[in-house]
Amino acid sequence: MANYCHPHICQCLSRLLGFGRHFPVTVTGNRRKTGQQLVEEVLSLAQGLLHLGLSPGHVVAISAYNRYLEWLLAVAFVGGIAAPLNYRWSFEEARLALAAVKPVLLVTDESSSTWYSKLQQNDIPSLKWHILLDSASLDFTKWNVLTPEMIKRHPVKVEPFDYSWAPEGTVIICFTSGSRFSLRCFSSGLQLIVVWGLVEKLIYLQSLNTGTGADSLRYKVKKSRTTGKPKGVTLSHGALIIQSLAKIAIVGYNENDVYLHTAPLCHIGGLSSAMTMLMVGGCHVLMPKFDAESAVGAIEQYAVTSFITVPAIMASLISVIRPKEIWKGGETVKKILNGGGSLSHELIKDSSIFFHKAKLISAYVDEKTTMSLQTFGVAGSKFIQQPQGVCVGKPAPHVELKISADASGLIGRILTRGPHIMLRYWETHTNPVSPNNEVWLDTGDIGSIDHYGNLWLLGRTNGRIKSGGENIYPEEVEAILLQHPGITNVVVVGIPDAHLTEMVAACIQLRENWQWSEQLTVSDEEFNLSRKNLQLYCIENHLSRFKIPKMFISWKKPFPLTTTGKIRRDQVRKEVMSQLRSLHSNL
């Protein structure tokens, strides 16, 4: 029985059916759907899922381009769990993720053809059904392969919205750029809710009690700072709703917005903005995946008013816009939310020229909280990057920040408290945050707060690399490279890059009798290594392409160590940066 006292992702359907009934709310190519049509599509899918046999707590894995907004809502409507997968993953990564969450239903399209064609039924014993969003690619020799049209039910009963909650919680299993992992799967009653915040690792979700209050609805974020292996973090339902409201208040999303989905729905940034736009009843312009030419065309064609970006996306957009004699998008775009790394001076300057009417907003996030939104204006861009770090602005109204300072009292670990933070780690029974949020949560980032109240980021306490909006764990890349017979030791670091934010660089120590040369090809003789054949080695060992190092440095001296014998990754990074003009010399 639905309980309308508590949050539910499908509560947005009432607004879409009421205020947006006759207005377009989704645009995909030449296809437009009004609010009423979207609601009917969601309900038709939901009824089909129920008829198929989907029950509260069942997991639905989705690996597709940006075309499954209705699926997220439909799965939630019936009390299922949605697990969006990154379509850029290798087969091995996708298989591990599927094995971990044990889905009963897999929804795919052509984006996943490189790996789902390899998937055997015995790889995922829990899998009962497979739905292909592309009928042309149907393979009826595998499982119970269906199409959306085969499961939809008509006519649909539009109101009242009798949606369901899972027995013990309302959740989404959200993957971003996680590492190879060994995981346990929870199977208690679960249900979809869009997660807010940059959750870098696998999210597991499980209610911690059977209470019915808003804070009893929690999800578990699986993450680890040092190994890339998951660790659980629980967040309340209330935190998710507060974050959505904060986005509406700070970014200024409203029903008049035309929002371009530049980020994939498998990423938390894409999911969170999608949910916020659903709540206000704006129009979604969906591209299968980001392409700068297509995005620029869509901005002009549909008079896009808002989108989210990372430095790599912004750089690509600017490169397409710059040579245009006539650029109409600058007149319509009013809001740009940037995450995944700070924009360079050049990109900020260019964005103020080509999107001269837009408010540029920065999001600083931490995986143990919902998205901690910060804001700054383009007009103050000279303050955004200084030698002391990167300014990400002032916190949202519901966010408290402070610095656990060093002896100088100015620089230290960034702490936060408020309704946006986690309730507890999943593996502990004690709540690290008291009911009145008196305990401060350590974000793991280093920074300072200036006398204007602006937060300045100076670095991370871990070695996580942010490249092109993706999170990369150096330990995962190192584990692959260490398997190569010619490598005895390796340290992977992120090097500042204007386009990618950080570029993956691998510092390698060669085994005796092995030689390094940038001139070698992949077919050269044994005992020789080069950038090309190491990159090929990474591909052959199923490392996703965005994680493969773009730089390799032959490191001739011992790696710097701490007093406890751990690699000083920060020192390696500094030495590499000091040698950027001679990367292939002997360090």
Task: Supply the key terms.
single chain, 587 residues, alpha/beta, Rossmann fold, GMP Synthetase, Chain A, domain 3, 3 domains, 7-stranded mixed β-sheet, 7-stranded antiparallel β-sheet, 14 helices, 29 strands, disordered C terminus
The helical percent reads: 10-25%
Estimated share of beta-strand residues? 15-25%
Give the overall pLDDT as a whole number.
Answer: 75
Largest sheet: 7 strands, mixed
Question: How many domains make up the 3D coordinates?
Answer: 3
Q: So what's the oligomer here?
A: single chain
Fourth-tier CATH superfamily name of the largest domain: ANL, N-terminal domain
CATH architecture of the largest domain: 3-Layer(aba) Sandwich
Strand order, biggest sheet? 2-1-12-11-13-14-15
Indicate the overall shape.
globular
Protein name: 2-succinylbenzoate--CoA ligase
GO biological process, one term: fatty acid metabolic process
Keywords: Ligase
Domain AMP-dependent synthetase/ligase: 26-179, 226-426
Structure description:
- The structure is a single chain.
- The chain has 587 residues and is α/β, with parallel strands linked by helices.
- The protein folds into three domains: 9-20 and 31-237, ANL, N-terminal domain (Rossmann fold); 242-422 and 429-460, 3-Layer(aba) Sandwich (Rossmann fold), CATH 3.40.50.12780; 465-582, GMP Synthetase, Chain A, domain 3 (2-Layer Sandwich).
- It is 24% helix and 22% strand.
- The strands form seven sheets. Strands 2-1-12-11-13-14-15 form a seven-stranded mixed β-sheet, with helices on both faces. Strands 16, 17, 18, 19, 20, 21 and 22 form a seven-stranded antiparallel β-sheet that branches. Strands 4-3-5-6-7 form a five-stranded parallel β-sheet.
- It is globular, with a radius of gyration of 24 Å.
- The termini are far apart.
